[in-house]
Design brief:
By secondary structure, the chain is an alpha/beta fold. The chain contains five helices and five strands, in the order E-H-E-H-E-H-E-H-E-H. 46% of the residues lie in helices and 21% in strands. A five-stranded parallel β-sheet has the order 2-1-3-4-5, sandwiched between helices. Helix 3 (62-72) links the parallel strand 3 (50-54) and strand 4. The longest helix is centred in the N-terminal third of the chain and has 13 residues, at 13-25.
């Protein structure tokens, strides 16, 4: 079985580097994108096991990205990473995926990615 494939969309370059390092160290193949529009373009070209996305990004929110991504890849698992979210947004997560609050603990992120793809 090949490496688990992850697409991570976040407009924060520091978070991108952190998540990339954590997941690559765990043997996962990670592609990053700085916004939802670009991430959607990547999803149209390649399959992924998990989409990890920030909620608030320029050009497209993480919610909209997840919705459109699921149309392209219905089996795609979604994990949201966000520092700020409302109670209304929090109630939406069970419909689309799992919410993890920034800053995220590396071991918990790895565990949640593994759980999302059924290998925890």
């Amino acid at each position: 079985m090949g490496a688990k494939t992850i697409l991570y969309a976040d407009d924060d370059p520091l978070m991108q580097r952190l998540v990339l390092a954590v997941l690559e160290h765990a043997g996962m193949a990670v592609t990053t994108s700085s916004n939802g529009v670009d991430a959607l373009g990547v999803l149209a070209e390649r399959s992924f096991d998990v989409l990890i996305t920030d909620i608030r990004m320029p050009r497209m929110t993480g919610f909209e990205l997840a919705h459109r991504a699921k149309l392209l890849q219905p089996n795609l698992k979604v994990i949201y990473l966000s520092a700020h979210f409302s109670d209304a947004e929090r109630s939406t997560f069970p419909l689309y995926g799992v919410l993890m609050e920034k800053p995220v603990e590396p071991s918990k992120l790895r565990q949640e990615v593994n759980r999302a793809i059924g290998s925890a």
